[in-house]
Amino acid sequence: MPDAKLKPKVEAALFIAGRPLSVIEICKAVNYDNEQEIKTIVEELRTDYQSRDSALEIAVTSNNKYVLQLKPLFPEIIAKLAPPGLLTLGALKTLSLIALKQPIKQHEVIKIRGSHAYKYIHQLEEKGFIETIPEGRTKILKTSQLFADYFGLDYDLKKLKMQLRWKMRKEGLPAELLKIPGIDDEGTA
C-alpha cells in the first residue's frame, strides 16, 4: 500500500521538473520503486487535472514520459508573463506555423510571417524546438523531438499535426489564433 503522501509527491516531482519525466525518473525522485503504482498515480493525477477547470494538464509524450504543463489556453498571457528565456508570442506564432506546415522552407515562413521571423527561427533553433536542414540558398524547417516532448505531442509528423490542431480547438482558442495565413482548416497549404 503506497504512502498517503505519495500522490502529492509525484505531483510535486512533475511540477518541479519542468520537463517530461519517465516513470523510472519519477520513482527515483519520490524514492519509491513500484513503477506500476507510480504509473497508476500519474494516471489518477491526469484524470484529476482533466476533471477540473484548470489551466494545467499532465500530458504524455510520444516516448511515454509525463509532463505537467500549461494548456495552450492563453498564449498572449503566457508570452507576457513567462520568465525570460522562454518563447515570445512572435516566436510561438512562428513555431505554430512551422509545426502545422512542416517541412517548410524558411523563405516561405518569412513570406508569411515577415522578415522579423528570421530572428524567431534563430531563437527556436537555439532552444532546440526546430531543426534546420540546408537546401540550396534556403533551409528546410521542421520541429524537433524536444518540441514534441515539451508540448506533449507525438513525433510522427501526421499525428503531431492532428494533435496540435485538436489541442488548439479543444482549448477553445479564439478563431484568429487558429488561423495562420497560408494554412487552411486542415493545416495544409
From TrEMBL:
Under the heading InterPro entries, the entry gives: ScpB_csome_segregation, WH-like_DNA-bd_sf, WH_DNA-bd_sf
An example Pfam family from this entry, by short name, is SMC_ScpB
Q: Which UniProt keywords apply?
A: Cell cycle, Cell division, Chromosome partition, Cytoplasm
- Domain of life of the source: Archaea
Single Gene Ontology BP term? Answer: cell division
What is the recorded name of this protein?
A: SMC-Scp complex subunit ScpB
Organism, per UniProt? Answer: Odinarchaeota yellowstonii (strain LCB_4)
